[in-house]
Design a protein that fits this description.
24% strand; four-stranded antiparallel β-sheet; 38% helix; Alpha-Beta Plaits; 2 domains; 12 strands; Ribosomal Protein S5, domain 2; eight-stranded mixed β-sheet
């Protein structure tokens, strides 16, 4: 049995420039961090006396005899990619729900690939793990997704990620722990209560990507400014102001990124003391990240009392094998 633990992520700046349609023409960059909320994948050899050969458990349970019969596209494509076709049980669990802007689908694939590699007796580095996950999502499944989530899940940590043509570079931010703690203390994470289909929203953004080059260049340049700010020693309020500016730009990319319910939540948070914030992921719903001075947290909590607040911390581990006792 192998159990992998793979983090979800929060993306601060640069989202949209991690789509291949963008960075194969112009350089992309994002600033993101993994957080201490995880996807867990349990893989084990399936005893041969069952009348099925593969068991997959997520929100549904699939009992099948061949990989081709598996309905879950990420599981089916990952098993084909790994060359595994029988005698396997896969069980999924997670700390937070999918389709909420935290990169859950990419964390799932990264965690699954990590576990499957170890089951086959092979250790893979984070770069290979992220590369494989990107290939499966974008090419094998054909999803309209970016490339930052897979990298954040595989590497973990607070990083700048640069994209060039068909490659990427991960640059961990060398920031004193107390500076990181100060940033963490200004962040609140709320679930809007709205689930959405990120690829559907992304398809529209990608379709019109050439119409928004100026906005995307500005969003990419914010990565440079934010990294410089974090590496300095000045007050972090500017980080919140930049989040607000980036959110105003992002919402202009598509009329599906926000709606009246989301705008109402954001306005309420701002009126209660939030300096800035954004919807995480492609937009349309999911989790909202807010930058709020600690002394104003209680005001925002009171204003958003009907929403589910998720406490979190940054994490540095990336996808890990937390239990292992056999190989294929």
């Amino acid at each position: 049995m192998i159990i992998s633990q793979t983090p979800f992520r929060i993306s601060f700046f640069g989202g949209g420039t991690d789509y291949p349609a963008w960075y194969r023409e112009e350089e992309g960059a994002v600033l993101s961090t993994s957080i201490d909320k995880y996807c867990y994948i349990n893989c084990r050899r399936l005893p041969g006396f069952f009348d099925y050969k593969i068991r997959v458990v997520y929100t549904k349970t699939e009992l099948v005899k061949t990989v081709e019969e598996i309905k879950h596209p990420a599981v089916r494509k990952s098993l084909k990619f790994m060359g595994i076709d029988k005698d396997l049980e896969i069980t999924h669990a997670a700390d937070l729900p999918a389709r909420t802007g935290l990169g859950a689908s990419s964390s799932f694939i990264v965690g699954l690939l990590n576990a499957l590699h170890v089951l086959k007796g092979k250790h893979v580095n984070p770069y290979e793990l992220a590369e494989n996950a990107i290939r499966i999502e974008q090419e094998c499944i054909g999803e309209a997704v970016g490339s930052q989530d897979q990298i954040a899940a595989a590497f973990g940590g607070l990083n700048r990620i640069d994209f060039f043509d068909n490659s990427f570079k991960v640059i961990p931010l060398d920031i004193p722990p107390e500076r990181v703690a100060t940033l963490e203390s200004h962040l609140l994470l709320y679930f809007t209560g709205i689930f959405r289909n990120a690829p559907e929203i992304a398809i529209e953004q990608i379709k019109h990507i050439n119409d928004h080059k100026t906005a995307l260049r500005e969003m990419r340049s914010m990565v440079d400014s934010a990294v410089k700010l974090l590496k300095g020693n000045g007050a972090l309020e500017e980080f919140g102001e930049m989040l607000h500016e980036a959110w105003m730009i992002k919402r202009s990319l598509s009329d599906r990124i926000t709606n009246t319910a989301i705008d109402s939540i954001y306005s309420a948070a701002r009126s209660a003391g939030a300096i800035g914030g954004k919807l995480l992921g492609a937009g349309g719903g999911g989790f909202m990240l807010l930058f709020v001075p600690p002394e104003r947290h209680y005001l925002v909590r009171e204003r958003l009392e009907k929403l589910f607040k998720v406490p979190f911390r940054f994490e540095n581990g990336g996808s890990q094998i937390i239990f292992r006792n056999s190989v294929l």
